[in-house]
Each structure stands twice: as C-alpha cells, then as structure tokens.
C-alpha cells in the first residue's frame, strides 16, 4: 500500500468545505446537497474508470475563487485585457512547473480539455507547416494581406491535409481524426491498428501505412490500449515520411511525470508536440495542456483566440498546484503504484479466467474482453455498476458488437491507487469483478436470441459484492478525516 493521496490537513479541509457549502447552500441548497452527495457517491464505489482520479483538496479548492471572474485572452505578458498581472503569475507558474515536470522546452497551459489541447496542436501544425510557407510564398506576413485568390488557395491547402492515427477499436481516441469529432472533418484520416494475433502495435505495419498515406501528422496516444508505445520508433517513422509527430498522452501523463514511462516510452523528447489532459493519471484539475518543441511554440501560444475561448485562470492556478504536487518525490511512488496495481489487477483477472486484450498491461489500464462470459460490454458495465463497481464499456479490436454495445470493459487503477489500494486490494477487486461477470446472464429475446443490453444476475450477487467492496473502501477512505456532516 502507498500513502498516495497528496497530503492535506483534514481539520482545515473540513472547515474549508463546510464553510464553502454553507455559503453555496444559502443561495441554492440543492447544489450544496448535490456536491455533498457526489462526495458520498465517490466514497462509496470502486472507481475503476481509467480516465478518472481524485484531485487533492488543495487542487480542488484552488478552483473556487475570483480568478474565475477574470478575462485574460492572450499569453503571459501579452494580453488583450488589462489587469492580468495575477493571471500572469499563475499561468507562468503552471507553465514553469510543467516544463520542469516533463522536461519540455515549452508548455501552454490554457486548453480547457483534451479535445481543446489537440485542436491547439493541430492548428499549430497547420499554421507552421501549411500557413506560414503560404504566407512566405505570397510575400506577406498576415492572412489579411493575402489576395482573394491566395486566400482561397490557402484554405484549400489547409483543408487538404492528412492525419494517421491509431484506430478507435485498437484503443485510439475520437480526436485523432475520427468523424464524430472535428478532427475527422479537418483531416483526411487513415488508421493503424494492432496485430490481430497479439493485440500489440505492429510498428512495421505503421511504417508501411505511413509510407503509403504520407500524412502531415502522425498521431500516437490512446485511451484504451493497455501497453507502452515506443515513441522513439514512432518518431523515426514520422521523420521518414516527413510527418509532424504529435502524441496525446492524456491517459498516461501521470506515468510520464512519475518516471514510470521513460526513454523510448516517454513521448515528450520524441514528439514535436505533446498534448494531455491534466485530470487523469496526472491527478490535477479538469483541463488540458500542450507541450511543444521550440519550432511549434509560437503557433501553440496562439491557441487562444485561434481555437480556444478565454483561458480559465482559476483552472490554470489549480494546474500549477497539481504540477507542484506531481514534482514531489511521493508522486513517483504513486505513479509506480498505479502501474504495479494494474499488473496485480490484470493478473488477478487472468488467473480467474478473464480474457484480457493483449494478455495483460504495462500501463495504468486493463481491457477485459467480456465475450468469454457471454456478455456485451454494456451488460458487463451495468452489472458491475449494480454491484458498486464503476467502469466503462469499451470496444475491443475488431469488435463484433460495435461502438455502442461493445465487447469490453476498460478498467484503470489511478483513482483507487490514490485511495491507497495496493496489490492485495486489486486482487480482491479482480475477484469481485469476475464473480459479477460470471454471475450475469444475458436475457433471452422473444425471437430466441439474446439481448445485448438486458441481463439477470444471480440472486443477491450485487448486494454481496457491494458489501465486499465496502470493506475494501472503508479500509481506504477517500479524503480521510474530511467530514462534511
Ligand atoms: N473520456 C476520456 C476517456 O475516458 O478516456 C477520453 O476522452
């Protein structure tokens, strides 16, 4: 077990939250009640959503203040609004901590989310690789100086670019060029998948596809691939085909910050541009960030107002606090525990007969193929939720049940590791999960088939599992000593 939660003084945090809820409750008590209820719910469930975590009271409290009222379009020292000196302080601090934490030459901490961070990155690549040469060719410094014909040509050129990313069912992300996201409309997209036998990335196949497709952007990163990626090898491929290498490390940024993923597996030195969220394994506030090599830094800094609304200074302040936490030596212990716990979870599941995509994990997540239990991902997700285990359904490679019902559930260890779970607790969690999946049966349909959504579970299973989960949770309280009653 690790003492992973960022340290806080329970009596002070209790006083702060009680006062805050009193102030809020005086205006709209139902909101104050919902805030209290959310804490109670989070305390009472086994949270295994791979993209979630528990930020420290310091990070959370930093977001509730008057920075929220300030407009600050522009960048540090170069704002379109007056009176931004305090925003400059927190934005500069967040960027400095980020550069130090990740060894990055440049950090832009304004993106509001991961999607926003990716949009900033994509625009920065387009601006640097397509727009800037077009302006130079036309002999002008700004798009407003282009002739109408040049402007039309530039818009066509910007809209005629290619991105190669990991396919969704192999674990890639919607924002990596897929049609339900703007990136799929901005770019002609092609995908690389994983080896059908091993489930692992096949770098020779990526190289072959990159040679054929010649993308402007080679994208790496994932939200459901349970393995490390060799970013050095991916960069070689990008260089060979003249692509800009962009990595979205949203899921595993905490493992990079905590030096679990180093060398070829650390994206920051290899990517031209690295994007992330700040609230997943990194355990900061909800938000995004872009790290860039110097040649992309200026274009990245134009994220607002190019593709972002005004920055959220209260969140940038919280990013600064969370990065300061992540620079403490304890965070490396936390990150290592996240990865070790994922191993324990994977081993516990596999030992009890569950099928794991790629056979295991070497990051913070495990993808269980639940078809061996006769279930869809949707049934598994719902049955687990009934039993107090919060997961999310997820497609597996070449998923026969499509993106809605799916055939998998994704499990992640960052949140419960923050609560202090270790190998024994994750093994017990694996046991509970397998018990629920094995005790769940799809409902028969009238035409003699089986439902993809409905199911029944063995009598009393959900209650028994909840009780067993409560024992684990009670032994590892969330925000120990924080008492809102
Ligand atoms: N929603 C995040 C996840 O769950 O992986 C990424 O968008």
Report on this structure:
With about 475 residues, the chain is an alpha/beta fold. Among the domains are: about 190 residues, Type I PLP-dependent aspartate aminotransferase-like (Major domain) (Aspartate Aminotransferase, domain 2, 3-Layer(aba) Sandwich); about 150 residues, Aspartate Aminotransferase, domain 1. Helices cover about 45% and strands about 15% of the residues. It has 19 helices and 17 strands. Strands 4-10-9-8-7-5-6 form a seven-stranded mixed beta sheet, sandwiched between helices. Helix 18 packs antiparallel against helix 19. It starts with 9 loop residues before the first helix and ends in a 10-residue tail after the last helix. The structure holds D-serine. The site of D-serine (DSN) has 3 residues, from loops. GO terms for molecular function: glycine hydroxymethyltransferase activity; methyltransferase activity; pyridoxal phosphate binding. This is Serine hydroxymethyltransferase. Pfam families: SHMT. Its cofactor is pyridoxal 5'-phosphate.
């Amino acid at each position: 077990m690790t003492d992973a939660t960022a340290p806080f003084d329970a009596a002070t945090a209790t006083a702060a939250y009680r006062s805050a809820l009193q102030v809020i409750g005086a205006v709209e008590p139902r909101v104050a009640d919902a805030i209290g209820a959310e804490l109670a719910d989070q305390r009472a469930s086994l949270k295994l959503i791979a993209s979630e975590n528990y930020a420290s009271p310091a990070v959370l409290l930093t977001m509730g203040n008057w920075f929220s009222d300030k407009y600050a379009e522009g960048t540090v020292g170069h704002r379109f609004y007056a009176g931004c000196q305090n925003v400059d302080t927190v934005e500069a601090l967040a960027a400095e901590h980020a550069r130090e934490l990740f060894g990055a030459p440049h950090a832009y901490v304004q993106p509001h989310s991961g999607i926003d961070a990716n949009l900033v990155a994509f625009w920065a690549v387009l601006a640097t690789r397509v727009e800037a040469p077009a302006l130079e060719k036309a002999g002008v410094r700004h798009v407003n100086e282009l002739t109408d014909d040049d402007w039309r040509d530039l818009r066509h050129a910007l809209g005629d670019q290619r991105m190669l990313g990991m396919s969704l069912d192999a674990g890639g992300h919607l924002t990596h060029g897929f049609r339900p996201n703007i990136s799929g409309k901005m770019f002609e997209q092609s995908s690389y998948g994983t080896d059908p036998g091993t489930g692992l990335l096949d770098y020779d196949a990526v190289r072959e596809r990159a040679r054929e497709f010649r993308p402007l952007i080679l994208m790496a990163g994932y939200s459901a691939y349970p393995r490390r990626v060799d970013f050095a090898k991916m960069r070689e491929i990008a260089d060979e085909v003249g692509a800009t290498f962009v990595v979205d490390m949203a899921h595993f940024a905490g493992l990079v910050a905590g030096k679990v993923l180093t060398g070829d597996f650390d994206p920051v030195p290899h990517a031209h541009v690295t994007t992330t969220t700040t609230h997943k394994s990194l355990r900061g506030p909800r938000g995004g960030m872009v790290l860039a090599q110097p040649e992309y830094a200026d274009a990245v800094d134009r994220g607002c107002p190019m593709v972002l609304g005004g920055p959220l200074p209260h969140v940038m302040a919280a990013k600064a606090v969370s990065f300061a936490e992540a620079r403490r030596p304890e965070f490396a212990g936390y990150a290592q525990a996240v990865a070790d716990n994922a191993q324990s979870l994977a081993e516990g599941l596999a030992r009890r007969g569950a099928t794991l995509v790629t056979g295991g994990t070497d990051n913070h997540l495990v993808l269980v193929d639940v078809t061996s239990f006769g279930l869809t991902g949707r049934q598994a997700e719902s049955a687990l939720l009934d039993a107090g285990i919060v997961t999310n359904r997820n497609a597996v490679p070449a998923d026969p049940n499509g993106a809605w019902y799916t055939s998998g559930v994704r499990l992640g260890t960052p949140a419960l590791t923050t609560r202090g779970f270790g190998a024994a607790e994750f093994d017990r969690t694996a046991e509970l999960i397998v018990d629920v999946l094995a005790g769940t049966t799809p409902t028969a349909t009238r035409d003699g088939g089986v439902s993809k959504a409905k199911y029944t579970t063995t009598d009393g299973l959900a209650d028994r599992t909840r009780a067993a989960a409560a024992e684990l949770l009670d032994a590892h309280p969330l925000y120990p000593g924080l008492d809102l009653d």
